[in-house]
Design brief:
Layout: H1 2-23, H2 26-44, H3 46-59, E1 62-66, E2 77-80, H4 81-99, H5 112-132, H6 137-160, H7 164-188, H8 206-226, H9 230-249, H10 253-269, H11 273-285, H12 293-304, E3 313-314, E4 317-318, H13 321-336, H14 356-389, H15 393-412, H16 422-462
Helix pairs in contact: 2-3, 2-4, 3-4, 3-7, 4-6, 5-6, 5-14, 6-16, 7-9, 7-16, 8-9, 8-10, 8-15, 8-16, 10-11, 10-15, 13-14, 14-15, 14-16, 15-16
């Protein structure tokens, strides 16, 4: 009976495959087969799917780039391989949880309410924007879906992680990905152009790459400050040394600015905070003596650009056109926000604003801004509370680095859409998931150690 059923299923699949081959080009069929393989592998073992997702974050090419409707899409909508992977792995995760109901879909965490609040406001704001004609339906849907993608990463992490060893493997893969893209960035430096992540298209996004390197570098630095293992220290030092050159040559002034409070936050969390903060302050003061010329020129360009149309003047100081454009966008967003104060214009319903906070305010209104700030506060609070609870140096190091990197990203968001950028948010939400589960993993590790010691004691006593 089973063999007959297998033959029937095989024939049905063969017939369906044959029909699809006649209807679609080979490239579409290849993607379909690849998606089926990834779905199956992730369904059987979700951890393998997560590893694949980690390496695709900065190492995946653009698969579709195009203009869609919507006021804020002067740069178009870009879909990358990780969007495809996340959709497939996410569906596999949902299917796995539906079949194995004991796994649970969404683990209860301190961030659930804040995430739900923000998602609901984004959906409502965009929905009203579509009905009012301010948001093009396809564009609004794609952007809201991208926002939700990040939270799917978070929930996959917190639902799947079962041990400290798993966390260490995930962190190693995240660091390895950063090491690879840092080497690629170093190889770009001799060309004389601003360094950006691989597969960023023709223009590149150095500011995005700078934010990513800032965050991962701070996490690595926090771990370096707490780990006692010499081999781990050597690996982390190598990673940080590889991050520094491409970070500097992104020539991202927003990233440079964000580095200062991030390092200060890390210094204040260190054991010898007064000495470390003092050293950092001295290093910043004498930085003109050792920074590369290209970096110093980029910083000074803010005030020395030849006079051009669109520059903003503050007293006798004339700012460059890029900085001026950000200040103007802040001003315009704050002026237009009262026209739709509660739920805003809808996501992508307003002209492009290259700064996170005014964009959230004008697109999702006061409700969205409150929800966004509540989400940031909840992340900060749960990380800080967990740091007070955990005792393991490894987890303390991750927590210190994450918190410092988080401070840096908040400052980075003053001049970039940091908290909606795929290249930054995917690793950020991976680490956010780790921050939430750290206390439970530490308790489990302690219980396992105590159990092993009890068994050993019992064997000794029995002998």
């Amino acid at each position: 009976m089973r063999s007959t059923l297998f033959i029937i299923c095989f024939l049905l699949v063969a017939l369906l495959t044959g029909y699809l081959i006649t209807q679609y080009p080979p490239s579409i069929m290849f993607l379909g087969v690849l998606a089926l393989i990834i779905f199956t592998v992730s369904f059987i073992k979700i951890e393998l799917g997560l590893y694949l997702l980690i390496f695709s974050m900065l190492l995946s090419p653009e698969i579709i780039t195009g203009q869609t409707g919507g006021a804020s899409l002067e740069r178009g909508v870009t879909l990358r391989l990780e969007d495809f992977l996340l959709a497939v792995i996410g569906l596999s995760w949902f299917a796995r949880n539906a079949v194995k109901k004991e796994l649970g879909l969404l683990l209860k965490t301190p961030l659930n309410k804040a995430i739900l609040f923000y998602v609901v406001v984004c959906v409502l704001s965009t929905g009203f924007g579509i009905m009012a004609g301010r948001v093009e339906i396809k564009t609004g849907f794609l952007f809201v879906l991208k926002y939700i993608e990040y939270f799917i990463i978070f929930f996959m992490m917190v639902n799947h992680v079962r041990s400290t060893d798993q966390i260490k493997r995930f962190v190693f893969c995240l660091f390895l990905t950063c090491f690879i893209v840092s080497i690629i960035g170093i190889l770009q430096i001799p060309a004389g152009e601003r360094v950006s992540a691989p597969f960023e298209g023709e223009m590149g996004e150095p500011n995005t790459f700078g934010g990513y390197l800032l965050f991962i570098g701070l996490v690595a630095a926090g771990l370096l400050a707490r780990t006692d293992h010499s081999g781990t220290k050597q690996i982390l030092v190598l990673l940080i040394l590889c991050i520094i050159p491409p970070f500097l040559f992104t020539q991202s002034r927003t990233s440079y600015l964000a580095l200062i409070p991030a390092l200060m936050a890390l210094g204040f969390m260190a054991d010898r905070r007064i000495i470390i903060v003092g050293v950092l302050m001295i290093a910043f003061l004498v930085s003109p003596l050792y920074l590369p010329t290209a970096v110093k020129n980029r910083i000074m360009y803010t005030f020395t650009q030849p006079e051009e149309k669109g520059q903003v003047k503050i007293g006798d100081i004339r700012l460059d056109t890029s900085t001026s454009a950000r200040l103007v966008s802040w001003k315009e967003a704050l002026e237009d926000f009262p026209k739709h104060p509660l739920l805003g214009y809808g996501i992508t319903g307003y002209s492009f604003v290259d700064a996170q906070f005014p964009r959230v305010l004008v697109e999702t209104g006061i409700f969205g801004f409150i929800a966004f700030c509540y989400l940031l506060f909840s992340i900060f609070k749960v990380t800080l509370n967990n740091l007070k609870e955990i005792k393991t140096p490894y987890f303390q190091g991750l927590g210190f680095g994450f918190l410092a990197g988080f401070v840096g990203l908040i400052v980075h968001a003053l001049g970039a859409n940091t908290f909606i950028i795929v290249r930054i948010m995917e690793p950020f939400w991976f680490f956010a998931g780790i921050m939430v589960v750290m206390p439970a993993m530490e308790r489990e590790q302690v219980e396992q150690t105590e159990s092993v010691m009890a068994r050993g004691k019992a064997l000794v006593t029995g002998s």
